[in-house]
Amino acid sequence: MDYVTLNNGVKMPLEGFGVFQVPDPIQCEQAVLDAIATGYRLIDTAAAYMNEKAVGAAIAKCGVPREELFITTKLWVQDASYEAAKKAIQTSLDNLGLDYLDLYLIHQPVGDYIGAWRAMEEAYREGRLRAIGVSNFNAARLLDFCESVTVKPAVDQVEIHPFFHQKEAMKVMADYGVIPEAWGPFAEGQFGLFTNPVLTEIGRSHGKTAAQVALRWNIQRGVVVIPKTVHKNRMEQNFDIWDFALTPEEMERIDALDTGRSGIVDHNSPAFIRMLHNLKIHE
Asked: What protein family is recorded (predicted)?
């Protein structure tokens, strides 16, 4: 496992395990236990995933020292204000059964996220959050945010995969020392990623699958990946990407797959933003 160093000196694993769309507490707890047993040390959840307690139960049972784990969760839109964020941070800590979080992200650039960031900065200075960052901030939004806050975000978690490279956002991240983290590194199966001829052919030359090639491509670009699965054999496959490297020519062939658009969600859609505001995760 390789690590990347965040802009505040904290080391973060380049590969982690995500639990998006694993709401069943028993299944989620077992999946996290299996992931940690496989070797994953970065676990990514969110208040909106409604499974923080299950993740916390797995952390308590896994037998791995807390300091060896890197736990991420996220602030939901409903709590995007100074006062609400202060409460949400503590709620997530309580749900996870932890004294501190390794990374806490603003989940969406919606609502009073500047006010929420001030609460996050306070918790960061207090040591309850080792690093703070954002998620789903596009290039323009991220640039404006970095120019408006005191503590620069350590991470921007956005959709990145061989068919959507986020070139503009990646450039802004590099300019401000923000580490890119890829949600949906398999494009959620869109664009035929698992059977793509280019990825399949490159994988065959290394004895790897198209999925493993997709993960390796991101890793070699310095992008943290958090693939999700509830199947232990897939977890093991996804983690088995550290014994090969893509050549510059292979990286260029994958670069050519970029469509410049998401195949999953349109963050510029008014209907999508309205849905985010209407999605309440607590009373």
From this structure: Belongs to the aldo/keto reductase family.
